[in-house]
Structure formats: C-alpha cells, structure tokens
Amino acid sequence: MTIAERPSLYLASTSPYRRALLSKLTENFQCIAPNTIETPRVGESAAALVQRLATEKAHAVASTLTSGLVIGSDQVAVFGKEIIGKPHTEEKACAQLRQFSGHAVQFLTGLAVVNAATGETQTTLDCFNVHFRTLTEAEIRCYVAREQPLDCAGSFKSEGLGICLFSKLAGDDPNSLIGLPLIKLLQLLRQAGRDLLLEP
Question: What is the pLDDT of residues 28-44, one digit of tens each?
C-alpha cells in the first residue's frame, strides 16, 4: 500500500497525553476535538460508559470526514464501585490518594476505531489495576505538590513520579494508564488495514 492509498489517521481527542502516546507510533495523524457530552447514563456501568464514550467520540469526528480511520478513547478510574474523576484541586488530589492508600484502583479504558468512509466500527476494553502501597500524609502532600496531577483521574502520573506510590501494577499495557492502550490500538488498526510497524 502506497502512502497515498493509506487511510489517514485521526485522534478524536485534544488530550496532550493521548497525543504523546500516539506520537510514539507515528507522526502521521491529526487531532480533532470530538465535542461530545461525557455524562454517564442512569445505571450505566463504568465499562459500558467508557466503551460508549470512546465510540461516540470516534463517530463524532468521523461524521465530519469522508475517509480515514478515527481513534476514540475514554477512561475512568474505579475505586470500590465508585467512578473516580479528575481532582482539579490539590486538596481533592490529596483526598483521593488518602482513599487509595493500601488499596487497589481499577482503570478502565474504552477504545474505538471507526472507518469514516464505511462507518465500520471496532471497539475494545482495557482493564488495568494499580495497587497503592500504604502512604504517609507527608508522602501524599509532597507528591501532589511536586507533580500537580490535577487533570489526571486517580491523582497520579504513572509515567512520572507517580510510580513511587505503587506496590504493584497489574495489566497488559501500562500505556493504558495514560489514556491510550497502544497494544490493543495497534491490533484494531491492523484489522482496519493499517500496520504502523510497516510504515516508514
């Protein structure tokens, strides 16, 4: 397949974290804001929520195009049976980490790839468990002050100093913690006709 024949690649996101992850695989893509509403439905499970939102994001961007492959992704953190959002403030980040100390948090990431020309949609779900060690108040406050994880669900950045908070990570792809499970994404893209490994 020549460069001209390859379907263009789009990321339905403005997240700098997802953009950086996809950039590890290819520079040949464009980010487009999906402008979707991310409100959970009544009785909707966390797994159903992220799969629905990932698909809606990809379709929202695909509807503006005539061709190309559109990637949509959505993630939530689940502690107990509660969906954990982004803290936005230092105090809320510290409160989340106090909750998590000595416990496990599950991260669910929905992923969708939509062919804009045909509407063909592929979806998958990635699960990753983060086990926190027992944290002191000083460690919690020092971490939040140093890394400012205020826009991150779970109040940490696993790719940075956040690794100091954990006793164990359990899952197939640590990239999913940052918002884009690359192993499963590559599988969906191959099924859709693009093998990024074979591209110059």
Answer: 999 999 989 888 899 99
From CA 73, how far away is CA 120, in angstroms rounded? 16
Look at residue 3 and tell me whether its pLDDT is greater than 70: no
pTM of model > 0.85: yes
Task: Decide if 74 is catalytic.
Answer: yes
| Cα distance from N-terminal residue to C-terminal residue, the chain | 12
Q: What is the pLDDT of residue 5?
A: 61
Is there a contact between 49 and 61 (Cβ–Cβ < 8 Å)?
Answer: no
Q: Catalytic residue among 74, 172, 173, 195, which? A: 74
Q: Tell me how far the alpha carbon of residue 6 is from its chain's centroid.
A: 25
Share the mean pLDDT of the chain. 94
The separation between CA 186 and the C-alpha centre of its own chain, rounded to angstroms, equals 14
Residue 12 CA to its chain's centroid (Å): 12
Q: Is 144 exposed, middle or buried (0-12, 13-18, 19+ CB in 10 A)?
A: buried
Cα angle value 164/165/169 (rounded, 5°): 95
